[in-house]
Structures are given as C-alpha cells and as structure tokens.
C-alpha cells in the first residue's frame, strides 16, 4: 500500500504538469492573484471627482458586483483587470457620484406627465388654450386634471373659475398650482362638491370667495379634501406607468436616487403613500422594473404603521427601496401666500400665512415617532414656521435624549435672523431646493418687501457658515428635476432675464453644491454608508458629464449629462 505522502506528491506533480501545459495569457489579461477579484468594469482616463476627502480626484475606478472595488490611477488597476473586464476610456471627461434628489413627489410628477401640463404658462390666453385642448380630447363628463400653473409668470393675477367655465361646460376641472398648495376648480366641479356662498373654510384650508361671498374656484391647502371623494382614483396601471416615466426622466438628469415624499400634500389622503408603496414600488421591485433607488417617507399621522413595517423588514427592503421616515407640514407656500411669517405679507397686510397643522399635534406625533427612532421631516417655508419646527425639535431632544436623529426641515426657505445658527446648534438638516429661487425671485420683493426678501431668503451660505448640512433637491414636479440646473443656480443665483445675482453673498461654491446633491444628501437620509461618494465599497452610481475641463465647470457651473450608471451598469442613455 502506497503511503499518503507519495499520493499527495503525485497529485501535486499532476496539477503542475497540467498548469504548465496551458497557453500563456496576454500580460494585459493576466489572471489576478486569489486575493484580487476581477473587476466587471474599469473606468479609465477620466477626471473623477469622488466627494471623498481621502482622495478627492482620481483617473480610474473599478467596479465589481455593483459596488466600487477600487479607485485611483490606472496603474493601480492592473491586477484586477482580467477576463471579462470591460474597460471604458472617457478621454478626460468628468465623472461625479450619481445625484441624489432630496425632495421629490415621484409618482405625482410621473402622473403630471400624463395630464394637463401648465408649467411655464405665462399668460391667461395660454392657460385657457391648454385647458381647452385637454377638454377637446376628454369624454363629456370626465374629470380634466393637471396643473403646474404659476400666476407669478403672468403678473400675479390669480386664475378664476370664470376663466375656463365657458370652455368646460360639461367637464369638471381641477388644476393645482405648481407648489401644490393652491388649486383651481371650475364651476362644474364646485357644484359637484357642493361648494356655495355658505360653505365654511375647513381647518388648515381656505375656500376663496369674492367680496359678495361667491366662490372663485380657488382652494388653499386642506380645502382640496372636499374634492377627494369626487375625483376618480388613479388606476394602479397609471401609477406604474408614472413610475416608469418619472424614473426615466430622473436618469436623463443624472439622478440615481430620490427621497420621495409621495402623493401627500395638505388635504390629500394619507392612504396614497401606502397604496403606492405596496401596489407600485413593491410590485416594481419584485418584477425587476426598478431603475433608480428610492428612499420613501410616509405621512407623520401613520408613523406607527411605518414602525411596524420596519420592525418586520428593517430600513433596507432591497438595493432599490429604503424606508426613510415620516413627514408633516407646518405651513403652506410663498406663491400661495400661505407660508407662515412673523410679519404680514407686504401685498396682503392682513395675511400672515397659514399654519396647516396644530403645533401640539406636531409635537406629540414627533415625540412618538422619534421615541421609536424614526427620522422626521417637516415642511416649513416661512420664517415663523421654521422657528416653530425648530422649537418642536428642540423640545423632542430635551425629552427623548440626545442621539443621531438627523431631523430635517424641508424647504427652510425664509429664515429669521439667528435661525441658521439654530439649525447648526441643533444639528437640523436643511433640505432646500435651489431652483425655487428662480421662481420666487421675480415676486418675492412684492410679497415680502425688499428688505425682508433679501435678508432672509434662500440663505445657502449662511446655513453652511453655521455648519448646517445642506441637502439639495427639486420638489419635482414643483420645478424640474435637474441637479445640474440646481447646482448652477446655487452657485450663480441669477434668475431668467436677470443680468446680476440675487443676493450674491449667499452664492456657494461648486464643491459645496455638488456635495449637497451627493454626500450630504446621502447623510441626510442615513444612506451615506452606501451612497453619496465614489469610495471603495459603496454602490457604483455615477454620472459622466459632457465637459472635460474642471476649471471651466468650477467657473461656470455648466455641463450636461452624457451617461448615467446605476450599480455600475449604464442606465442612460438606453432604451428609454
């Protein structure tokens, strides 16, 4: 019987003989060592801005299994380039992390793409023309829905039901303002809803009337609840189509992750967010149809339902769906004269704005949500509303104890003196939307007065100086989902048709603007361990820009999206 040692030696000799007989590989495609896995993709000859302080710039990046394997110079990639590795030579183009839009209403935006679109309308004539065209294509008696109108674009006059009554005699019409805080209903819709001279304003809302008491057709905030039982529910199929349309648009703009606050506005049903979660997002995830990542926030009133869900599945449902937290509203919007201020509106001296949620209720719900560990985000636009929410957050911290909460204020648009410092002291995330500035710049002086408008509006640099974490977004469909546009606006602050910046002292650098759309945005929703920078181990979501010159990008803030990659796979352009 042969000894085990002899058998082992013979086996080793046989293996060595087989290996020696194999053909030699080209040095470029040498098999890596056992400790160096082969990359699926290597991006090379690029100008990669990583947003990672340990290595801000690199020229090459390796991806494996959807995550960044290595980043640095091309020579450091040689041992992980092997059989099956795809190499992408960018010839010096700029690469940045995939953009995170910190505030969208994703399905609302997708559905709007399928309805009457009134964005950019700058005259009464064009407003009525678009409605007339929609009615012509609608069945008699069916609802005509849509929105996106902004009365400031045609001088500020508010639309009335009488504008469209003659062209909509047989169809109820409901059109929301771009900010979602004001809507216009025609007389057919008003009659169906039973709104008359004797109708009273609901809590947190207003039915606008003439001096003689007749409803004008305009409804503010929670007043839209009156119409919800009348307007046909959007079908599951339409919402799924809306997700596809919205996601494809996001990819075109370089957005790989969104923080989605759902179809939830003052007066809207809290059930929409949960129906969309189960019928659209979970369906798309299980069907393999998700193409961007979503971090979902749900109505604060439903916090216990989210608590139970997270107890069962955790915060990460898949590589595509993250369960973020809960959201509420403190006030309305500037454009609707319903943002809550300490001083009255300059053009409406009896109006201080609208408090849409009772402060005691906000405090109690926030306390309960926070006690479980849910992240809380609250909408506040006016200076008084922002301070009110800071008071709520400060009270919650004092009662529930200090920990890493990352409380958010959505919009933080108009702040009183000293408020940016309070944001910093309390560690509150300022989730702001740069391109709202372009919309408001033409009208804010009229609404607030020049001094208030310039000292307290869109204080990006003041917030950064107070060590506040900025998270940039769009609030789409309020304004377009367009991070590159938001970056340029935050840097330049020059509205359309203007030659000079509006409050240039609040302009920020390209680096700070990019960070607010990437790493800071990821931190703002607890996703910074996976997203926000091009660092080894993180998900390989990145964008290739059209420009070659970093200096030119720094100076002008101008570029366009050439390609968007999600998990190391090209998602745009493609079969979109």
From TrEMBL:
Pfam families, per database record? Amidohydro_3 (PF07969)
Segment forming the signal sequence: 1-20
Domain of life the protein comes from: Eukaryota
Which InterPro entries does this chain map to? Amidohydro_3, Metal-dep_hydrolase_composite, Metal_Hydrolase, YtcJ-like
Q: Which UniProt keywords apply?
A: Signal
* Signal is among the record's keywords: yes
Residue ranges occupied by any Amidohydrolase domain in the UniProt entry? 87-568
Q: Name one GO molecular function term.
A: hydrolase activity, acting on carbon-nitrogen (but not peptide) bonds
**Could you identify this protein by its name?**
Amidohydrolase 3 domain-containing protein
Query: Which species?
Result: Rubus argutus
Organism ancestry:
Eukaryota, Viridiplantae, Streptophyta, Embryophyta, Tracheophyta
